[in-house]
Amino acid sequence: MTTTADPVFGGIAGLPGRAVPFFPVQPHIIPQTPGFKDVQSEVVPVLVVGAGPVGLALAGDLGWRGIGCLLIEQSDGSIYQPRMDLVGVRTMEFCRRWGLVGAVEGSPYPRDYAQDNIYLTSLTGYELGRERFPGIGQAPPPKESPQRRERCPQNMFDPILREFAAAQKSVTMRYRTRLVSFTQNAELVTAVIENADTGARETVKARYIVGCDGARSLVRETLGIPMHGNPVLTYTTNVIFRCPHLLSLHDKGKAYRHIFIGPEGTWSTIVAINGRDQWRFSIIGGAEQREYTTDEIKALIRRAVGRDFAFEILSVLPWVRRELVADRYRNGRGFIAGDSAHVMSPTGGFGMNTGIQDAVDLSWKLAAMLEGWGGDGLLDSYTIERQPIGARNVTEASGNLRRMLSVEPHADLLDATPQGAAIRDKVGREFSETMRREWFTLGAHLGYRYEGSPICRPDGSAAPPDDPRAYTPTARPGHRAPHAWLADGRSTLDLFGRGFTLLGFGVDVKAAAPLLDAARQRRVPMTFTAIAEPQVAALYERKFVLVRPDGHVAWRGDAVPDDALRLVDVVRGAASSPSRQAWAAPVQAPVKSATV
Ligand SMILES: Cc1cc2nc3c(=O)[nH]c(=O)nc-3n(C[C@H](O)[C@H](O)[C@H](O)COP(=O)(O)OP(=O)(O)OC[C@H]3O[C@@H](n4cnc5c(N)ncnc54)[C@H](O)[C@@H]3O)c2cc1C
Fold first, then answer.
1. I need a labelling partner for 359 at 20 to 30 A (CA). Which of 201, 388, 391, 552 fits?
2. What is the pLDDT of residue 579?
3. CB 9, CB 322: distance < 8 Å
4. What pTM was estimated for this model as a whole?
């Protein structure tokens, strides 16, 4: 058994034991990749600190845009305990753009493994309720996206992102390399990095630095950015145990998540971490710090299963569940993304998915500055757009935790009496209803919008409700440009990515010429695509829709505006912001909404 106290993650010292990789990956399959011959003599365009999923996604996306980037990671890339395993719909849309869908779908998590969430007194005890979900490979994508959400635990997902980043010619990756300190001036960042094996230090000069260095971010601290919120929701202990025959010990069948409710209320969970022989047992805990001995942990696992059985504990990770958001995501040439910018309860599976959205928002803006077409206000729009989304998702995740812990104590919950049965029935019904909000989250993943963004031009239309459960497709400025299938089998999303895409519905390129010319004058990459499909035109609602490199709508209208040059300046962050009032709009008939 090993115990891992993960300082980056905000873990706390736990049981004694040597931390060895639980899921060894092969970090050195990626040699020090060769983008920069000599980081000491060259100026690195972007220094990314931390190769968790967010740093890997950022480096990969920068590389995909041809932007030079040095990614450093203090560890050797081994995963001690996989944390995330839900890859959300939006993240899968980015994977589609990056050509990674096949790798995710081909990862070893069994695609026919039922994803039910069960509420129960123990695996061999009473079932109180169940939300049924088919295996990931058996669920069709929602009609609002070309992709479905995926189950791909971190020890499978990180290597996919790592290979993606390493495959980009302009990306250099260095594992066992730690950021020690950095300073910045108006032109450059100067960072001291250290080889974790030899202790050798070198100085790196970079145009920008991005801290993807997790909850205890040194980059955030050095930039002097405070976080606000609740530093302790629970002291939780996660235990990975191996038991290949667990399914044969009970009658509940295959399920992804089991939530255990005892007379005291909700107290633990077990999830099928690899869909085979490994399980993650989580003692939820409370606001009081508590450490468990091995014997106590074993007894609690047996309580959850409801009988004695043989199993092997593989690792124990005590950690602190927090609810924090950074006040801003930028200071000068320094940025933060992912857990360094927001730390949330895993309830809902938003943490990494929010961080990868940060990375995609920031990446094209850094590219624009480095390529010389970004305006002075472009980088400030990163905080303005992403910080409210971080706060939104942190709040939703904490709400999910509260809902999971909302069961009142019932002393007779386990009684084999009619009264016990009546209580179990009531608890099961109410809990099943309450928990649905955590399981159906298409709105949370696709419905985030950059309301009031200074680099989008509002069109006066009303915002659909921001409901985490329900997503309302809309091409309103600030929103994710919606998905629709094109006649040739592509998704509209396949049209977006490297530059701006001007969509034309019932108009030709001549009508678009003034805007395309304005973009050319400002060296903003912009292409025009005419779309003939009437159902797509109906969804997008205007004759022209301008989509940014990250797939969000920057502007739409029925004619190219007279001030085309000014519009281009707005969307590249070079013109003063449209007023906040312009976003507050008269209420219109809502576009059809949907849940999945
Ligand atoms: C039990 C659990 C389940 C979860 N499930 C989900 C889920 O299903 N879906 C989801 O979206 N999220 C989930 N999350 C949250 C998710 O795991 C995190 O949000 C995500 O890992 C954050 O990624 P990151 O890259 O920002 O940070 P991290 O993964 O923390 O990576 C930071 C990296 O920076 C490195 N680093 C730190 N300091 C330095 C330095 N000075 N120099 C060099 N390198 C440095 C660290 O070694 C580390 O590798 C879950 C979390 C938990 C605890």
1. 201
2. 63
3. no
4. 0.93
